[in-house]
Structures are given as structure tokens and as C-alpha cells.
Design goal:
The protein is α+β, with helices and mostly antiparallel strands. It has a 6-stranded antiparallel barrel with strand order 6-7-12-10-9-13. The longest helix is centred in the C-terminal third of the chain and has 27 residues. It starts with 6 loop residues before the first strand and ends with a helix.
């Protein structure tokens, strides 16, 4: 299975890796965008040059600001005759996203994904922002990260896409993911290729879960299966108590 529709990694001409976590613009993905802003180091806000700022754009801005994540604005579709990048900039000024050429602090990049124009400039902007933030991760510790998505697959059982944030994840590791736990039986990268380990910022699909965690759940490697089951059971019990209290409050 390929996981490029949610989390994937590219290598730039300068031989540096960038991992993208894609949160679609449709309103049905509001929750996913909220979780996405919490697991990303930089938000790339894509706005169509012919369309301007929409409600989903504003929601994405609010999620990023709430998570205190820097925003790079990517204005797409500049190849269209009705494109108006300046109009987009003016609209975003109302939300305090001001481009450097207008005296602000936000990096803006104008591209055409269809014509592959200025995509290299977007890569450069992301790398520049990451260098300014001095982003670093330690690959030598026990792995932890976040669940991007999970589901039940015929012949595989429960599977999950994990974004590793710290440490190195290996086949055979015992883990806890929200109220689920397990031991990694197999792992594949964003191209569907089987791998045995994943370092920080690498998205992988794993097999070996006892349940189906929720997107945004914390993923952490632990010492053994008894410890994993103990933590998972505690989280599940806590979630049930919270649900009970919520139901009782709603009945009052």
C-alpha cells in the first residue's frame, strides 16, 4: 500500500529530505487539519490564485496559529489568466499573514503545480524556514511519533500510518498508540517498499496493532508487551470514564 495521499517524503536537489503531511481542504477534514498543525514543524498554506481565501483557509490558519507553527504561504495556479496573487495577499493581510515584500514576516511563494513552475522555490523556502527554526531530532532514543491514519485491511488486520518524530522505529518494536498497542510485524515507506527501520520525519505504515487508534494519537515504543498492554488498558479505561461523564452531563 502506498501512503503518499497522507504523509510522504521527497528529496530535494540539494539532497535534503522534506516530509509532507497532507491535510485536504474540504471541511470534512477540519479535525485532521487541527491534528496536523500539532504534528508539523511548518505549515504550508496553499491558496489558489484564482480563488482566494475561503472558510477552510481561515480554519487552517487558526489551527496553525493555535499550535504556534510558522506559516509559509503557497499561492498556486499562477498560470491561469484569472490568477490574482495580489488579491490573495491582500485577503491574507486581514489574518495577519503579511509577505516579506509588504513588510511582514511570512514567506510567500507563487507557483504553478500544473506547470511545475517555482516548485524549487517552495522547497528552498521550507528549508530556509527549517534552518531558521534550527529543527533537530535525536535518532538514538526510543521512537515516538503520531498516528496519521489507521484502518482495518483485509488480510492485514489493523494498520496505521505513523510519522516518527524522535528516535528510530524498528520492526519488532513493541509500542502503544492511544488505547491500542502491539508489536511491529512489518513496516513499509511512503512508496510501499518494505523497510526494517525508520528515523525521525519518516512516515511509515505499520502492521501489528491490536486495535485501531485515532488519527493524532501519540505513538511510543515501550520495553515489553506487558507494559504496552498496561498503558493501553489505562488509556482505554480513562477514555470510557470521560465518555461516561460526558454522557451524564448531557442528560442533566
Amino acid at each position: 500500500m502506498c501512503i503518499r495521499d497522507r504523509a510522504y517524503r521527497i528529496i530535494t536537489k540539494s539532497k535534503k529530505f522534506i516530509t509532507f503531511f497532507d491535510t485536504p481542504g474540504h471541511e470534512a477534514f477540519t479535525t485532521m487539519r487541527a491534528r496536523g498543525a500539532k504534528v508539523t514543524d511548518i505549515v504550508v498554506l496553499v491558496v489558489a490564485a484564482d480563488d482566494g481565501v475561503k472558510e477552510t483557509t481561515i480554519e487552517a490558519i487558526n489551527h496553525a496559529k493555535a499550535a504556534k507553527v510558522p506559516i509559509i504561504v503557497c499561492i498556486n495556479k499562477i498560470d491561469l489568466s484569472e490568477a490574482n496573487s495580489q488579491n490573495v495577499k491582500n485577503q491574507l493581510m486581514e489574518h495577519k499573514l503579511i509577505s516579506e515584500d509588504m513588510g511582514g514576516e511570512n514567506l510567500y511563494v507563487e507557483i504553478s503545480a500544473k506547470e511545475k513552475k517555482n516548485l524549487n522555490k517552495l522547497e528552498e523556502a521550507i528549508i530556509l524556514q527549517s534552518e531558521m527554526l534550527d529543527l533537530k531530532a535525536n535518532p538514538s532514543k526510543k521512537a515516538f511519533g503520531v498516528i496519521v491514519e489507521s484502518k482495518l485491511e483485509q488480510g492485514k488486520g489493523s494498520t496505521a500510518t505513523v510519522l516518527v518524530q524522535e528516535g528510530t522505529l524498528n520492526v519488532g518494536d513493541v509500542f502503544v498508540a492511544g488505547p491500542a498497542y502491539g508489536k511491529i510485524r512489518a513496516m513499509s515507506d511512503d512508496t510501499g517498499s518494505k523497510i526494517t527501520s525508520a528515523t525521525p520525519s519518516v512516515p511509515v505504515e505499520i502492521i501489528g496493532l491490536t486495535g485501531v487508534p485515532t488519527a493524532g494519537d501519540e505513538f511510543i515504543v515501550v520495553d515489553n508487551e506487558n507494559k504496552a498492554k498496561e498503558i493501553a488498558d489505562f488509556r482505554l479505561h480513562s477514555a470510557r470514564i470521560c465518555l461516561l461523564y460526558t454522557s451524564d452531563a448531557a442528560d442533566e
